[in-house]
Amino acid sequence: MSLQVKYTQMRRKTMMASLFVFIFTVIVTTLGLVFLHSARAEESPASDMVIRVKTDNEGGSDSRSFRLPMLGEGYSIDWEDDGITDQTDVVRAADHTYETPGVYTIRISGTHGGMNFYFASPDSQKIISIEQWGTAQWGPNMDFAFSFAQNLHINATDTPNTSHVTSMRGMFSSASLVNADFSGWDVSNVTNMERLFHNATAFNGDISDWNTSRVISMQAMFLGATAFNGDISQWDVSNVENMKNILTGASAFTGDLSNWDVGNVTDMEGAFFNASQFNSDVSRWDVSKVVSMRSMFSMTAFDGDVSRWDVGSVTNMSGMFSNTEHFNSDLSQWDMVGVETIDGMFSNAVAFNQDLADWNVSTIKSMQNFVGGTTSFGLEQYDITLQSWATQNLQRDVILVTDIGYCAAAPSRQFIIDTYGWKFYDRGSDCGSISVVGAEGNSEWDPITYGGPRSAGAVLAEFSVNGFTPVSYGLNCSVPGSHDGDFAIINNTLTAKTEIKGSNAVRAACVRAEGVSGRFVERIVYVRITAPQVITGASFTTVAGKTVLKVQGDALIPDYSQAFTRSLVTLNRIALPFCAEGFGLTAQEIVDIIPGAPVSDNAPCYWILRDGVQVSNDTQVEVWLPATFNTAYEGSVSVNGSSTFVFNPGAGSGEVTQPTVRTNSGSGALTGTPVILQRPTFSGMAAPHATVTVTVHSDPVSCTATASDTGSWSCTLPKALPAGSHTVFVRVVNPDETVDELGPYPVTVTVSNTSGGATLPSLLKQRPAFAQASRAQILTAEPEVTAEAQVRSTEDNNTAVSPARGEVGTAVPGQLLATNESSQPWSATWWVVAGIVIAGGIILVALKRRKQAE
């Protein structure tokens, strides 16, 4: 029993000791590991490169993996930065898969030589930061090291060892979040910085102290770096040969590049294209070796002086200043010999309007869209340029495209076409136009009309020129105007050289306006000196045994065509039709067309132009009168809207001049305050078919009547007037829409008067009963015309032809058969000798009788 107890106790002690040893061992081991890890972490070698990656960002590997695109050999990797080196002696790229997706820190030690995401890895978007550059030597190139690393931030405070780097081509291309301080970087051996910050849209770091003295290519270095506006003014670019697209699209860049030595640059194509704010002074640049300046300043704010540039080596200037808003430097001294294309060079160069006439363009082969669009380079500059170029020995079959027109250079342009086979796609001849200030429209056929006689020196018209600024005006057109001698030009005004009376003659003067470089524009100006239609006298005479009222005046018929389309003469307020038809004929010729034609009281026409006076310049009108017309009475006549002329003034008309009233007890004139019936009938005379309204305002009550063919009218009030005093007004609306207002007439009504009538005065002193004629049937515009005309007369059988409706065209010679509807049939054959159908369908014909039937 005691032996068993002792054994048990001893066993327990042994187990306790073993447990103590185990626990101690674990503790010591754990502490050792902690101390060891702590010691390694605290070391954090500065030589190591430290980056962070996010494995589940978009990439070529799966969401738990990352491909490290290093370039060196024999370097080591700690994939989780846990102090444990996971891979050693790694050659170039390495791949790793983590247990779970996430963000991991990777430590790279040894000679890694740098990395290249462009060629070696599709995982450029998985690297999210550089925490430490380390001291390992990069190089000899850093080409595309972080290209397309679109999630990359640089948090490192140290600088990479780039002392042996010779190329940084595309290093941060499209690394759109990179924006760090890169000052202190040793780039002294770099020769290639092509696309270094291409599309690095956030980059605006300090690189002002970079030593670029060995750089040969800066092509597209800041292309699309829209935020970059760093100071690079002191860079040594003396060895740079390629600056193509160096700052293209760098829209924030406003830096000073005036001190750059670009003497070795051969390519500046697109150098500042769309660097919209760029406007540095580059006047002292030596560009003598540059071969291409294509689109160099296109779409910029550039307006610098480049007048002294030596462009003798340039072959391509296409688009060089296109779409610039301010550029207008003098380029007249540029040596263009050797340049082959200037397509679009000044297209939409808004401000540019310099003289290019001195350019030697003998080597240029293409000029499409050379200048034009929204530009100040206009027709005058284009004229001067073409005139100069026509004197040079040009390339053949050149195509010149512009939206600018030419004027004075027309002969030069044609010479270039004929001699060298050039094709011009320009606006064509565009010599501008002369406008008459204040005149309607700008048609050279619209007469300028001025009223009244004009004495010598009177200003008739003022001109302006559209298209260019004139330096002189004159009456020296290539084809003189027919009346140039009547006028003079003073500055931009047309004046009367001698007194021009208002006889309605249209006078033609040819005005010439000249600009610089021989540009000119000519215009025929038609001037009509019109006096208002004024009747100066009227007298009675006899023509062909009939009474005629001869009306004389100034400018009575200003346009002969009016005589055939409407009535121009009114006699005692009655519109009279024209006597015969004709076109462009004198009055005497019209009469001669129908020799021996009877003139009677009932002829369907009553006025005629006489004495062989040209219709378009007539000052005399004769009115044929009915036999019943009393030439001793007072009357009135008006021609073509003239003021009314009263003949035989004060001679009376033989008619009652005041209203009269008939009552049960007799009649009395409406003078004083007459007594009228309670429901009177008013009557009187007016123009045939006039509308007459009589109103008693005090009631009010009115009646209306229409005058008959003879002018008589009457109306009775619809109800009786109350006894007492009243006022009578008469309103007459004539057929020509003129209005006569008569009254007021005070009257008195008594209860005993219940019926009766009052007579108001005639509005026409004389009322001849003119015949009524029907219009001829339609005359069609055919070579041989046969048509029937029906003419009715109220008293006897006479025939005439009135204007007829028809299709627009020309009435050529043909036959016309005229008959009437009287009880004495007869016929006559007429011949159409002249005629025209004008707008509106009025056929104007002149007829001549060939044979009278029995």
Describe the structure.
The chain has 854 residues and is mainly beta. Among the domains are: 1-38; 433-530, Immunoglobulin-like, CATH 2.60.40.60; 540-647, no CATH class; 660-759, Immunoglobulins (Immunoglobulin-like), CATH 2.60.40; 788-852, no CATH class. 9% of the residues lie in helices and 27% in strands. The strands form eleven sheets. The chain has a six-stranded mixed β-sheet, with no helix packed on it. It has a five-stranded mixed β-sheet with strand order 31-30-39-33-36, with no helix packed on it. The N and C termini lie far apart (187 Å).
Record the SSE blueprint:
Blueprint: H1 2-43, E1 49-54, E2 65-68, E3 73-78, E4 87-91, E5 94-97, E6 103-109, H2 117-120, E7 127-132, E8 153-154, E9 346-347, E10 366-367, E11 371-372, H3 379-389, E12 399-401, H4 410-420, E13 423-425, E14 433-436, E15 448-451, E16 459-466, E17 472-474, E18 487-490, E19 493-496, E20 506-514, E21 520-530, E22 534-543, E23 546-557, H5 562-565, E24 569-571, E25 574-576, H6 587-593, E26 607-609, E27 618-624, E28 635-639, E29 645-647, E30 660-663, E31 666-669, E32 675-676, E33 681-685, E34 691-696, E35 701-706, E36 712-716, E37 724-733, E38 739-749, E39 757-759, E40 788-790, E41 804-805, E42 815-819, E43 827-837, E44 842-852
Parallel strand pairs: 7-8, 9-11, 10-12, 12-13, 15-21, 32-38, 33-39, 40-42
Antiparallel strand pairs: 1-6, 1-7, 2-5, 3-4, 3-6, 14-16, 16-19, 17-20, 18-19, 20-21, 22-23, 23-27, 24-25, 24-28, 26-27, 28-29, 30-31, 30-39, 33-36, 34-35, 34-37, 37-38, 41-44, 42-43, 43-44
Helix pairs in contact: 3-4
